[in-house]
Protein 1
Amino acid sequence: MTAVSIGIPVYNEEAVVPELLARVTRVIDSLPGGPHEIVFVDDGSADRTRQLLADAAWRDSRIKVVCLSRNFGHQAAICAALDHAKGPAVILMDGDLQDEPEIIPEFVRQYEAGYDVVFARRSSRQEGLALRAAYKVFYRLIRALSDVTLPLDSGDFALLGPSVVGAIKRLPERERYLRGLRAWVGFKQVGIDVPRRARFAGRPKYTTWKLIKLALDGICSFSIVPLRAAALAGIVAMSASLLFACYALYVRFSVGASPEGFTASLLVMTFLSGVQLLFLGVIGEYLGRVYAEAKGRPTYVVATVEKRERRHVERVA
Ligand code: UDP
Ligand code: MG
């Protein structure tokens, strides 16, 4: 039986931390093998999250807290967890208990049965109707656009085996859409149906804008179809214009009249400038990402790591 690290990003989750600690520790207590660890990544919390976790790390040597120097965002925090986990198997889960830690033993069973990635498929959700519909549309859209087969309705809650962890860590990109990279690296993967619970306490830290950014990150990192769509729209516009030119010539020579319509021309002009600006924006999205990658700034910066040294415990004992 192998050792697992559970990586959990947290941002202003003081209301959830006590329950989270209790439930996750209960789960690793029940896991055979070891030594297991819990790696919390405090993503620049402004409340008591960091203090609560540091206290827990002091009480329990299996807990490590990686404190980032400011808020870098969920995906960056997950990457920090992945980088600081000893492994060899790493489980990533949200810190708001929407991902139930009690499912982890099942992940481990599948891993021991030979899978390199065991991910949770969200069989049901508690969010409002509009958000649920948006998630459904998004996952289907990105799957249709992407070159790799991205699993539907699955987030970052997963167990990653050592080969997958190694492969993901070696990827040089800074803007990471982890659930996509996980699918991209391949290996033997299996999804298990897990209901997505309501958040235990507190408010979601993903604002609508952050969700839209995540969706754009996902689409831009895994597809260039939006760029190609410009060419497609160009072909459609050119064909329409050619057809209309033929029609105008025909009317001119057979009937001797020219098509008229100031309003129609204005509409066509404004519509096509809209299409052009839209595609400029799409190119801008990709260019912005190329720029961000070219700068080569790290995904996150670590301020401190809170951990009670094992050595210290042994010396006291
Ligand atoms: N989170 C984070 N940094 C952020 C936003 C969120 O570390 O900038 C953490 C948050 O504390 C939680 C997890 O990421 O543990 C998922 O966030 P949230 O529940 O707000 O997202 P949602 O479930 O609404 O997608
Ligand atoms: Mg959540």
Protein 2
Amino acid sequence: MPLTPMKQILDEAKTIGYGVGAYNVNNMEQIQAILQAARETQSPVILQASKGALEYTSMVYIKHLMLAAVEENPEIPLAMHLDHGPNLGVCKQAIALGFTSVMIDGSIDYDVSDKKGKHPARTLEENIRVTKEVVDYAHSMGVSVEGELGTLGGIEDETVASEVLLTDPDEAVEFVERTGVDALALAIGTSHGAYKFKHEPTLAMDLIDEVRANVPNTALVMHGSSSVPSELVDVINQYGGKLDKTMGVPIPAIQEAVKRGITKINVDTDGRLACTGSIRKYLGEHPDVFDQRKYLGASRVAIYEVIKSKMIDFHTEGHAGDYKPLTLDDMKEFYAQGVAS
Ligand code: G3H
Ligand code: 13P
Ligand code: ZN
């Protein structure tokens, strides 16, 4: 099975009503862990690399690691996605590498920084302009595009807009109609990173209903979806780490969001927690070991366990064989007909 367009993966999920995890990746063990979970649960999967991941891996390594995952797992529909693309230039680089999907995070102007290194939020008009540029380029290559409306906390704390701005459902209509994005990231109260909430969160679930009704053909995306399980935080702290008490997005809240129309569920932090905890534990229990395959191998097992349970909880399980993947040439033709927007 070749690389799969993200639009197709999300359209299929919408038709049946399940969520697909979009897991951030940075190294081989993480990719292997996610694919082992996808194989065992027969789940379609989205592997995503942030700008930071592209820099860390000097781009070409992450590309080949993802392609190795495709080659080793021909029965799994797999999309290669750029997460939080800051501008057209980085989106073009990802497309040149063979990514089947890019996110342009036009809600923030990453190319401008104030004295404290903070980036300004973009107006709706500016967001539409930069997003449309990326859509025009990406669709001409058959590549899917995710845009964002509203701002999340976490990485977007770097914006000078001090409060988290929830997505406006009316703006969503205008944004989707004028840009032609395939997927829209909603700000519904989640944030990136480990420190999301002090108590059980109340997310703006009604907002998903409103946007779903307003833009029925666009995939909806939930960023900041890690659950930050206390077991993972506890292992880190038990073996010398120092993380504060915190809460993430509970699985029932994610399941509720999926029922209301979210199909792409972005997860990075839980993978990081599993990785860090397992390495700390392994080295804490085996102070004499200096073979990195031992502790990186332990991290692979821990990440696999966390991701496998998400594939089951998001109801992605069992859907890998539901459809035959389209090619980017099929998608080029589809977009050329102007059906997308
Ligand atoms: O949404 C952002 C991801 O957590 C990426 O984080 O830029 O540190 O790779 P990163
Ligand atoms: P978490 O920090 O909750 O894992 O969110 C990741 C994310 O949204 C990546 O785009
Ligand atoms: Zn994100």
